[in-house]
C-alpha cells in the first residue's frame, strides 16, 4: 500500500521565525525590466514589508512597464549608477542579460548593497569567484535566483532522499526537454555565446544545481558532446524588434516543426543539443541531457540509490508526481510509493518564484540560513563551463575548478 504520510509537499522556509516583523518597508531597486523582472514585481508589497522605489533600464521604452508594475511614484533611471547615486536602497534585483551579472553584482556588493542576482551567477567560473569575493569584501548579502530549489517536485525528491527511501545516492540522471527552445533562446541575446558561454551553462545551471542538491555533492570532472544540430539550418537571422522581449514573439501554437522558425538572432553560435556526464564528489555519477527542439517541455530526474530509485513525472502542476521503486521486478508503472504534487501556487514556476523572493527579502532583513546557496550557484556554473569546454573539444574530459575553501567557509557561516 502506498504511504505518503511521511513526505511533505509544502514549502517549509528555513528563514528566522520572526522574519515578518518589520518597522518599515525595505526599499528595493531593480536593474533590468525584461522578462524575469516579474521577480521584483513579486517583491513590491507596499505596507507589507517591501517596496520597489527605483528601476533602471538602458531602454527608456521599458519605463512604462516600471510605472505599471510599481506605481507612478517609482523613480526610473537610464543606468544603475544614476539610480545608486540618487537612492537609499536596502537591496537591488539584478535581472539583466547573463554576461552583465558579474560586473553589476560586484559593483553593488562592494558598495555594501544586498543583491539578488538572477541565475546564472556569472558566465565564467572566474566571474562567479569575483562576485563571491565582492560579497565578502563589501560585507553585503548575496542571493542567487535558483528558484527550482523551491519547486515542490524537487523538494519532495530531496525529502525522500534525506529520509533514506532509496538508500545512499549513487547516480542522478536528468533529461531536459526544452520544447520552446527556439522561441526562448534562439531569437535574442541567449543565442550568442558571448552573452551566455553556452545554453549548457545558461539553461543547465538550474538542473546542475538540482543534481548537486539531490546528490549532496558537487561535480569534479566532466565530459560532454553536442552541437548546433537544428537551428543552425535556419537562414532567417533577422532578429526581433528593438526593445522586444520574449513574450512579444513567443507563439506556442505555431513555430512547429522547429525548422519553421523565423527571425532568429543575427548571431547563433550556441548548441541546441548537449549531453554531459559527470563524476561528483564521493563517487556519485550523473548525466545531463538538454534538447531545445522537443515537442514537449519538462524535466525528468532519476535518482538511483543503494536501496531503490525515484523519478518525477511532470515537473510542476497538478498532474506531477514522484514515484519510488524499492523492490525487484520487471517493468512496472506501479511504483511502491507515489507522492502527488499539491496544486500549483500563485506566481511564476508553479509558485516557486514568490517563495524565492520571500526567502530573499527575509534574508536581507534578518540573515540566517537559506535554501539557495551562492557557493552552490558558483558550482553549477563551474560544472557548466567545464562541460562547455569539453563539448567544444570533442568530449575531452575536463576537471572542474574548486572554490577557495576559505571563501566557501565564509558563505557556509551565513556570510558572516
Key descriptive features of the protein:
single chain; alpha/beta; Rossmann fold; Dihydrodipicolinate Reductase, domain 2; six-stranded parallel β-sheet; 13 helices; globular; disordered N terminus
Describe the structure in your own words.
By secondary structure, this protein is of the alpha/beta class. The chain is built from 13 helices and 15 strands. α4 (101-110) runs parallel beside α5 (125-138), α5 packs antiparallel against α12 and α10 (204-215) crosses α12 (374-391). It starts with 25 loop residues before the first strand and ends with a helix. The model is unreliable at 1-20 (pLDDT under 50).
Outline of the structure:
With 416 residues, the chain is of the alpha/beta class.
Q: Topology of this structure?
A:
Blueprint: E1 26-31, H1 38-43, E2 50-56, H2 63-70, E3 75-77, H3 80-86, E4 91-94, H4 101-110, E5 114-118, H5 125-138, E6 142-145, H6 152-162, E7 169-177, H7 181-185, H8 193-196, H9 199-202, H10 204-215, E8 219-227, E9 273-280, E10 285-291, E11 298-305, E12 308-313, E13 321-325, E14 337-340, H11 352-366, H12 374-391, E15 398-399, H13 405-412
Parallel strand pairs: 1-2, 1-4, 2-3, 4-5, 5-6, 7-10
Antiparallel strand pairs: 7-11, 8-9, 8-15, 9-10, 11-12, 12-13, 13-14
The computed structural class is alpha/beta
Beta-strand residue percentage = 15-25%
General form:
globular
**Percent helix among the residues?**
25-40%
Number of strands: 15
The major sheet is characterized as:
9 strands, mixed
Number of domains: 2
GO molecular function, one term: nucleotide binding
Domain Gfo/Idh/MocA-like oxidoreductase N-terminal: 27-146
Family: Belongs to the Gfo/Idh/MocA family.
Organism: Streptomyces beijiangensis
